[in-house]
Batch of 4 targets.
Target 1
Amino acid sequence: MSSVQVARGLTLADGPVTKTWMSRLRGFWRRFARNRIAAFAAILLTVIYLAAIFAPFVTPYTPEKQNLLERFSAPSLRHPFGTDQFGRDSYTRALYGGRVSLAVGVASVAISLILGTLLGLEAGFTGGWPDIILMRFTDAVMAFPTLFLIVAISALVGPSLFNVIAIIGLTTWPVVARLVRGEVLSLKERDFALAARVLGFSPRRVMLRHLLPNTSAPIIVAGTLQLAFAVLTEATLSFLGLGVRPPTPSWGNMLTVAQKDMFVAPWVAVAPGGLIFLTVLCLNFIGDGLRDSLDPHLRER
Amino acid sequence: MLPYIARRLVQAVPVILLLTMISFGIMHLAPGGPGAFYSQDLSSPRTPEELARMRHLYGLDRPMPVQYISWLSNLAHGDFGSSYRNGEPVLAVLGRTGPATFLLMGCSMLLALAVSIPIGVLSAVRRYSVFDYLATSLAFFGISIPTFWIGLMAILVFGVVWPILPTTGIQNPTEPFSLTDRLRHLVMPVCIQALPLIGSWTRFIRSTMLEIMEEDYVRTARAKGLSERAVTYIHALRNALGPMVTLLGITVAYMVSSTAVVEYIFAWPGIGQKYIFAAIQDRDYPILLGTLVLVSLLTIIGSLLADIAYAIVDPRIKMGQGENAR
């Protein structure tokens, strides 16, 4: 019993709780906003995603609403991004497409981060055979040309929202696993981790309570960049007809149609493509800003 | 040196085995196994008896491990399967489509090198200058741009609005081969494919140069009284080219698949276009899996050769440095 109390007294991982959650967040934002572009990207991305989430309140139309009298009408006050071949409002469809993009991005990155973090922790901490097997396995997965692998699996299992999420999540976790493993390898030799082990904590507790919090910075950075990759990959798959299928609008499948229609109505290609580009650009800038503000020794000069 | 090479070779064996196992598993992801699609597509065997006979003919009724071993032994004999469509072997398909892909890749890489090396070096030399900020921001644009979208935009602008370039194919089908025609067809796909490369390479060269500029030998060169120009371009840049070669090696493998989308947009008759058509139109699974396995194997062999070449060139590797990833 006493050893546990000693441990509580030491509060190895938590540290004294003097700062409130809000003030920490404010401190983080101050450091993050020093990178002006990253701060601007974060605000812009929030606007894009909020507009997508609250799409029904932001637009008077629905994505499926057809109006054959207004086929291919050019951008105007009523239709800021014009209309498509069925007279559907491109602005509305782009907003709803943003929901798909956000859902696929967040869900697939969650799969990737959870799997990658747990396996990376285990391999880095335990070492030995589990580590060797994991490393060779990730070597093998990473040797596949990513897009070919994703395209082949999508073609085999068939296109659907769920499949896209699963495929992107299950093909990207090795990158996270290697990152976490590398961090854990160096962290586990540090004094605080040795202390936790000497105190007789279970390996699980050492991993989850002491090592994991210290790997959060690189994981958050990697997660942001993976989100950018997932958004781009979902769009590419849906564009090829291997991702989200119409009539559900996604930025990718809107471009499939645009490939044929853009010669009559160029605006149908501009909105979805521009949004993919903006979203990925914002995510990359944010990832860079997070790297600078969260983790000084990861800082790129 | 030899123990290092031997260790890398031994490490590659389980990776290759795992890779084939994963590919084999993917092949059986399809509902009903690979045979189901065969019958569906050719729509010849309709009855269950016919399907069973077909599965027997292709050995799909044998136990999984037996199928895996026989598939593996086919791979070892250079048989990567053949098309469900017309029976053309995967190797022949790659031989036919490969040159177009490598032409596109080679030209994009040359263009990307020609643009990113000067920008990256200048960015590093004038760190935090206006030029540096501009170049770094533009690099972000390069890595973020969806190539298929910017490809469509390029077709719209340079093919329709201001029609100065051909938008599809590798040459004008009604005319015999001519160099100018080939170059005109290359312009758009090459520029588009080079954009993401320029973005990532510029950043890579900038950070490599910055790292090297702080090395002892650079300080020594400066202390000897060499001009800043000589230090940058002779001492530093030459040492930055080593990591650059490694990066090129990694990029080649990555590009075979990332070029696919550009090939698809511009109807470029390469490996990637064939692959995408096999996936979305022909449902030609042997082509997909054969190409996937072959390109991955080439990736592993390529990185193995790069590591060995690097160990021969750079004696520090032998000492066990650069080994942190095991």
Target 2
Amino acid sequence: MVAPRYALRDSGTMLGRQLRHMLRYPSLTMLLVGMPVVFLLLFVYVFGETLGAGLGGVPGGRAEYLAYVIPGMLAVTVVACSGSAPAILVAMDMTEGIAARFRTMSISRFAVLAGHVLASLIQTMIAIGVVLGVALLIGYRPAADFAQWMAAIALIALVAFAITWLSVALGLVSDSVETASNLPMILMLLPLLGSGFVPAQSLPVGLRWFAENQPFTAIIETLRALLAGTSVGQTGLISVAWCVVIALAGYMWARKLYEREPVAK
Amino acid sequence: MTPTEARPAIAVNGLRKSFGNHAVLDGIDFAVPAGAVFALLGPNGAGKTTTIQILSTLIAADSGDVRVAGHSLIREPELVRAAIGVTGQFSAVDNLLTGEENLMLMADLRHLGKREGRQRTAELLERFELVEAAKKRLSTYSGGMRRRLDLAMTLVGDPRIIFLDEPTAGLDPRSRRTMWRIVRDLVADGVTIFLTTQYLEEADKLADRIAVLDGGRLVAEGTPSELKRMIPGGHIVLRFADTANLERATSAFGGGVRDEDGLSLLVPSEGGIESLRVVLDRLDAESIEVHGLSVHTPDLDDVFLAITGPRTEEQEVL
């Protein structure tokens, strides 16, 4: 075992390396931040009028849909950033000779993966900031107070943390960078098959059952309650529990995959 | 002499490794004294890279007792990792960073202080002739520069045992010579070097001891001169103007390998002046006319033919 104090220092070193990569390879960050913004504008300005009318509220329309769709949009942003980028970057790393070098050095094995996770978390939170900024610009006015804002941001960070570990594992299990960029697509569907864009009650029976019980519905409903300044109730606990389970499972899977022998060339 | 220097830097006993049903290493034993250069020689697929991957903790052996820097590979891999440096066959550099950043990354991972890390980085850039390219991205580096940076990265933590997997494969003659000089400098500092190569010449120039790996077994081990004595190796090729002379020469030398189309005869020889004189004297005595002659010194092919290949009566050495 490497001394714990080194595990922390090595993680910091690896984070520094990943942040440098981000600066050297800005197109990925730009794509990750840009895509949710385009989605947001698309849903508000193209589908918003009609979807808003379907919500059944009194005024209906675009403004109401904007308020409705933001939590779902934030979930999509998290999945798009934390779900895909780490998988791609980890898979790229593993195909390079430097991964073998790290394995033959006396550095914490945890640190190599932790660097990816921390850098991805930063990337995701930047994207969340941009999406929220654009939302405010186009007229989004949430009723949340300071504490509710903090709680919402903490929950988003927790979801991002959980999805990132899962994504790191997907990157490790992929035998190529192409596979690593395709596998997380399944995750992308989850926020869409829930209450993010339309109420779950409007879905057909089988799909509704799935929507009501999958983690993203709880997460999106919690965010919706926090941002609207209403009480959260049980969904908050369910969301946190889902995040802990996903994070732990992702971490343990990633750890196991990383410690497996590299395939002999 | 401290106890650390007295015991071998690397000790391998009964090392075995299979991938599926294929035994890549079939029970090999050797020891590398501290401060020595040990070359593992062998053709592609002989198990050289697998050996390095096991000794450098990258993959696990199926069985065998291996100690590196006095530490067991199985029980104390972290202590082994702290003592070694590895430069593999595929460049282990970070392509998105500059040369300097790559070295600083290694300094941080070796837990050097900031000042010490910068100092060591500057020193290595200088020594490996990378000062001008230090702040450039690796995409602008040539193959030789990458290889030098790769080795420089390995040296950041001042490891006392260094593994080099085919350090000169694919390099041009000048880069190859630079690499040889670097290895000699390391040896002068008392570093133990374990290298693999396909080139007999390279092993001959650098190594104190050479082991020949073939089909997962060590088929020979010794100093370069011991090994050369074991290997009869070279031959003389005699070319004739017609089949009559070829026939007469064949009987004069009691065999040899004939090439009817090329009208030539391959006579085994140690390659020295003396054996050449014996051949010429015999041709003279029999009045055989020779059209052309060339002398071939032992190369890796001869080594393997001699050590591993079946010996036929025709290849009797003069």
Target 3
Amino acid sequence: MAEEEITESVSEEEEVSEELDPIIVERISILENILSSYDISITSFLGEINIHIGRTDIIDILTILKNSPETLCNLFLCLSIVDYEDRFEAVYHLQSTTLNHRYVVKSSLDKDKPLISSCIGLWKGSDWYEREGHDLFGVIFEGHPNLSPLLLYEEFEGYPGRKDFPFNDYKEW
Amino acid sequence: MTNQQSLNSVDMLLNMGPQHPSTHGVFRMVLQIDGERVMDVEPYIGYLHRGSEKLSEGEQYAQIVTLFDRLDYLANFNNELVFCMAVEKLMGVEIPERAEYIRVILCELNRISSHFLFYGTMGMDAGASTPILYGFRDREKIQSLFESVSGARMMHNYFRIGGVKEDLPSDFFENIYWLLEEIKQGVDQADSLLSFNEIFLNRTRNIGLINTEDAIDFGLTGPNLRASGVSYDLRKNDPYSIYDRFDFDIPVGDRGDVWDRYFVRIQEIRESIKIIEQALKQIPDGEITANVRRIARPPEGDIFVHAENPRGDFGVYLVSDGSDKPYRLKIRPPSFCNLMALRHMMRNAYVSDSVMILGSIDIVLGEVDR
């Protein structure tokens, strides 16, 4: 439900701006073609292509984006976790070093039990990003071999990246 | 401990850091060694974690520029540029031509300054104590020019959302002319002193190898990736700011060893000089800031902007909810990703080479830990 809302709000802003770049339109149509059998929605905002994932395993989409000759996203740029009021969102930024395309893949996570598949088998470079996501946000990446704390120390309690973490009255000693 | 060694050899764990002069900051690695060979290495980071991303959520956009200075503290202008570009793109601000040129000139100077420091520390790691003096000498001249422009050697807080803080000082163009001459001499000196030195070549050739596929797989960017033979530079591949107006080359290595990573950077200094010289010829007169409200309030939405920093692909993912503070700010630090490949590069290296391999990645812990 929540995901549909954000899709609508993005597409509203898209209508306000001028007509889309023909290159972006072409890329979106290619994407819709190769991802046609999955539950996704594709929007574009300020020249970026956002792929919102519904009830599909994110690994399927990422594998296609990495291996398909039209996209060839071989470079794992960034993984961000965003804490919205009703959900977490995992945002993957993927880049192709040969085609110079960049795609944004967004997947909503449950607020109470954030759980998502690890993509360490696709890109080794996602290792520390996932550990960081577990460290600061408490997101569990299924299939990651070692989700030990990365930036925080072992005894640290709580997830300081989250919005509800008591940031200002936190006392270390 | 997982791999079974032959009967009479026992693996030993050797702890390096967090306070160790050759780790270039507070970085700890535990080497698992068998005799003189490194079998495995486990890096530990986070000693410098200040929560910059979380801090940003409580600051107004103009204040965050100061936090970005403190990420990659050897490339302050480049960091500021990425953040300002992200906010400007979300707000749809066109910045004046003169401000674009000032930004490019300062960013390229900062790249040279950062690479000079790398040249010095690289020699130091190899046991040559002379280059660090020359490297710092040339770097200091650039930092003095920065001081005349922004008022501070480092931590400039000079770029603003919509332009720069103030115009260049009146003697800037005369000073930079002489500075570039001195930098050119400095690079030539680096080449004659270290680059093709027989002993240095023996210490660096075919050490810390990483091939093209692995380099991309680990998410290496910047000079480290180009040393492995991938011509990927955002200034050419996806030109931001005004980089499409300049004529320059992308130096690429062929083996992906320590020497390639060193020499790509030395060549990059020369390319940066080319860019600065062209920018100095083209720079127009005019305004230095766009007409932006003093308190920036970008519209709702999210944007990812990245640029080529001295260490690689520095990115910012900015989520705005329409208020004067960002809802979420995620930083993609290039050193963070480059450091992930350390384990791969160090396997089966000699213990004495491990310092060279770490040094050749050119990490800055300020941005690794954020």
Target 4
Amino acid sequence: MAVKTFTTGEVLTSADTNTYLANSGLVYVTTATATSGTTLNITNCFSSTFDNYRILISNYLAASGSAITVQLGTGSALASGYYWAGNYCSAYTASPTVIGYGGANENQFTTHIVCDNTNQCGSSIDIYGANQAIRTSLVVGGVDTRTSGNPRLALAGFQNSATQFTSLHFASGAVIGNLTVTVYGYRKA
Amino acid sequence: MNNLELIIGTFHDALTGETITRELTAEEIACLPESVEPLEPE
């Protein structure tokens, strides 16, 4: 979609509105919220309409020290293998020790996003090629808002298959108090 | 996953907008990841 510059007095048509305003940039796909249990499963969120997606996690609350994991899937079926990823995080100190974790052929992406039941955290995830017949890769940025915790985190990884995924699944290490996930698609043209 | 409450999941369909909460099936539970201790630097 090209950028159009409107001139003074020009009539804004419905076609221009639909093309240049309604469909610009990130396009909202869906929002899902869990307030109990340990998993949040979003089906039919990936399609051929978009190749790349921005996922926003907000107001995540769960028992202290629980890391959230991400899996891709087709419908309600989880893809439980071939996840390759690396993490790192540091402490809230002037000269922190940065530690990391990596894994190959694991059963999930482990984001190491951490919260507790009173200090909610947020995160953004970019997912590339989710519904294409190529490896799906992702980059995660998140935070630990516990003052006793550690600022987080970066994770980069990929799922080593050419599966055309349609769904996204989150699992918490503890019972979820709140987990809100919003999915946007990057408009292709 | 040794607590019945821990096998409850929320399912949201982006096409229909429908959200339900239900127990996971045995097949779904088998595909769940193991709990992972988060990174905790000194």
